[in-house]
Amino acid sequence: MRLLNVADARAEAQRRLPKIFFDYIDGGAASEATMRANEADFACYELEQRALSGITAPRLGTTFLGQKQALPFMLGPVGFLGLYARDGEIQAARAAAKAGIGFCLSSFSLASITRLARQVQAQPMFQLYMLKDRSLALDMMGAARGAGVETLFLTVDCAITGIRERDARNGFRALTRLTPSLALKLLERPGWCWDMLRQGRPQVEALAGRKAFGRNLLAQAAALSARIDPALSWKDLDWVRTQWPGRIVLKGIMHPEDAHWARETGMDGITVSNHGGRQLDGASSTISRLAEIVAAAGGIEVTIDGGFRRGADILKAIALGASGVMLGRAAAFALAADGERGVSTIIAALAREIEVAMVLMGCPDIDTLRAEGPRFLKVK
Length: 380
Ligand SMILES: Cc1cc2nc3c(=O)[nH]c(=O)nc-3n(C[C@H](O)[C@H](O)[C@H](O)COP(=O)(O)O)c2cc1C
Fold this sequence. Notes:
Blueprint: H1 6-16, H2 19-26, H3 33-40, E1 45-47, E2 62-64, E3 67-69, E4 73-75, H4 81-84, H5 88-99, E5 104-105, H6 113-119, E6 125-128, H7 134-146, E7 151-155, H8 165-170, H9 180-187, H10 190-197, H11 217-226, H12 236-243, E8 247-253, H13 256-264, E9 269-272, H14 286-296, E10 301-305, H15 311-319, E11 324-327, H16 329-361, H17 366-371, H18 373-376, E12 377-379
Parallel strand pairs: 4-11, 5-6, 6-7, 7-8, 8-9, 9-10, 10-11
Antiparallel strand pairs: 1-12, 2-3
């Protein structure tokens, strides 16, 4: 297996993973139009090719979310990484740490933030869904603080779960235990089964020992999902602000007015995100809204995700004013394809694409690209 790019990783992930999990990663909401638009709309922007710039070694490092990053992207929160490869969260975080880029742990993770911090020599970030049970939310925030987390992503685009037809067909949402028919489907992927068996009984470690959540991964995930607060509103952010002393980033902002409100309510940053087209089908692609959202954000930090599969996509987002990009499926596929090595390979491939592009664009470094974006980008 040779992974040259994200498409290769996706194909290999499809080969290795049981269909129910591949579809969970790969799918989007309803007609999947927004999911497709996320990828397709990068074509609306073109990088300027410049001759004879003399630039031979562009600098790919930058700083965002208070961390020095060796590359202008990091690994964003993706649930259940530990189901795509054994100890998936740890493997992905290790690959990120080795590449000198950030990693954000989803609250829907098998590995706890505490174990992650112990096993990976890098400061992690943590993503939280606000829960109706605020004391549980506080416990999760407390564990994250204890693990040295500085940046909390509060995901705000999941008041209700999007309609995902692939998951409905596969019975993904109804999973609460391992049934015989599910076991048969999983056995179609013996390599994956063997990998999983070696990690023992899968659990959401952060919920282990809490009786109300059950004792197996599927029951725990369903119970956690049911506790997401659908009524979360701007006024609740004051409470989050008082409880979290570090940086708070609202993840899932798609409108300039919401970016404005994020700043007004004391948030430190936002992530322009439509959850990878998994929530509101028919919403805009993220890249097409980035520039106006950056303008409305009034100087707070703007990161973005959604459809990033190539180095050129990342450069376009930086030129449009993002301080950094977060990978979703690209990293999940790489992990499923070949574990930590797969993630490292894909990070390196994107880095190389970025480097080659910057030479051909005559762009000396990422900070220049952000500061002088229009010089490097043509809107079609
Ligand atoms: C399988 C999967 C699970 C995800 N789980 C979470 C999650 O637990 N928390 C969260 O904030 N976002 C989650 N997301 C959304 C990603 O953080 C990100 O917004 C999205 O994947 C970006 O689009 P891309 O996958 O096209 O890059 C998930 C996405 C996928 C594909």
